[in-house]
Amino acid sequence: MNPATHSVFNQSPPLIDTNLFTSDLALVDAVRREGAAWAIANLEEFGRLVGSREAIAWGSQANEFTPVLRTHDRWGNRIDEVEFHPSWHEWMRLSVGARLHDLPWMDPRPGAHVARAALFFLASQTESGHLCPISMTYSSIPALRREPHVAAIWERRILSGQYDPRCRPATEKTGVLIGMAMTEKQGGSDVRANTTRAVSVDDREYLLTGHKWFCSAPMCDAFLVLAQAPGGLTCFLLPRWTPDGTRNRFFLQRLKNKLGNRSNASSEVEFDDAFAWRIGEEGRGVATIIEMVTHTRLDCVLGSAALMRQAMVQALHHARHRSAFGKKLLDQPLMRNVLADLALESEAATLLALRLARAFDRRQEEGPFQRIATAVAKYWICKRAPVHVGEAMECLGGNGYVEESLLPRLYREIPLNSIWEGAGNVICLDVLRAMGKEPEAVEAFRAEIRLGSDTRLDEFVRTLDADLARPEESKARRTVERMALALQASLLLRHSPSALSDAFCASRLAGDWGRAFGTLPGIELGAILSHAAPPTE
Ligand SMILES: Cc1cc2nc3c(=O)[nH]c(=O)nc-3n(C[C@H](O)[C@H](O)[C@H](O)COP(=O)(O)OP(=O)(O)OC[C@H]3O[C@@H](n4cnc5c(N)ncnc54)[C@H](O)[C@@H]3O)c2cc1C
Question: Which atom, in ligand 1's list, is nearest to the CA of 423?
Answer without folding.
Answer: 47
